[in-house]
Amino acid sequence: MKVRQVKGNTYCIDVGISYIPFYKLNEKDIVLMDTGEPDDRELLESVFEEYNLNIKGILCSHGHPDHIGNNKYFKEKYGCPIAMPIFEALICSSPINLKAYYNNNTLTEIIDHYSFMIFETDVYITDKQTELIFCGAGFKIFHTNGHSPSHICITTPDKVGYVADALISYEMIENAKIPFDFILLEDLKSKDNLLSYDCDRYIVAHKGIYDDITNLIADNIAFYIHRAEKIFELIKGKMTMGEITSAAAESFQVNIKNLVKYDLISRMLRCYVDYLYEIGKIRLVIDDGLRKYCPFVVAQTDKTAEYHDILA
Prior knowledge:
Layout: E1 3-7, E2 10-14, E3 19-24, E4 29-33, H1 41-50, E5 54-59, H2 65-68, H3 71-78, E6 82-85, H4 86-91, H5 95-99, H6 107-114, E7 123-125, E8 131-134, E9 137-143, E10 152-155, E11 160-164, H7 170-175, H8 184-193, E12 201-204, E13 208-210, H9 214-234, H10 241-251, H11 259-278, E14 282-287, E15 290-295, H12 296-311
Parallel strand pairs: 4-5, 5-6, 6-7, 11-12
Antiparallel strand pairs: 1-2, 2-3, 3-4, 8-9, 9-10, 10-11, 12-13, 14-15
Helix pairs in contact: 8-9, 9-11, 10-11
């Protein structure tokens, strides 16, 4: 069944790899929470046609391509406003701004591959905002930055919490190789803060519906830390980010067949490498003119040698 009632007027659409929620304002009009990726468009439109639904507004959790992939298209088709966290809305407002996020890509690559992510936001959600009246309905906002710069969870008037990507389901924990994060250290704090996120039911985008998320929070935190530890084990001596990417691709059996995939995997790994640096497991060094990462013990040895060189 493509459409599933979660509670009251809160539903979600099963698009395969994720749930896309919506809140019914009346028998026809809905507020869609995220729009999936471009490949989800045909399925979503078939659901809207079958159930005679009209998108009155789009309320976005964050600015990743699998969550805003049809924002531009649906805004143009339905003439509906888009509400979104302000920082990510600005990122998605132009190719140049988007490059600030996809900094490893050229402007031409961004225009060629990510132009669907560029759209105009009508309602900006600030980083202090906890409530939003949108399309006549009252939603609550719970801030969970880390997975993305200003990721939010959205509570519908039915007290259903759309957790979006602040958590992943047990199925994803079982099958994910290198789940993406922006700043893992901040995301772990946000996951822990979700213990105070009080809702009657919860929708996890990838992909589950839960009455209680207490155990899921703990298991998510443990999983991401364990994944970081696995990546730490791959760092032997001094390695560039490219060498770490190659080692991880081999270890996790990821087939990197083009530049887009390489950039994606490299971005996925970055948060774990940064996390390992932040907690003191690895250090940055310059070796033969190259920026490299190494385990803390190796870095300490180099620091000692550098100190003796200065004294000499």
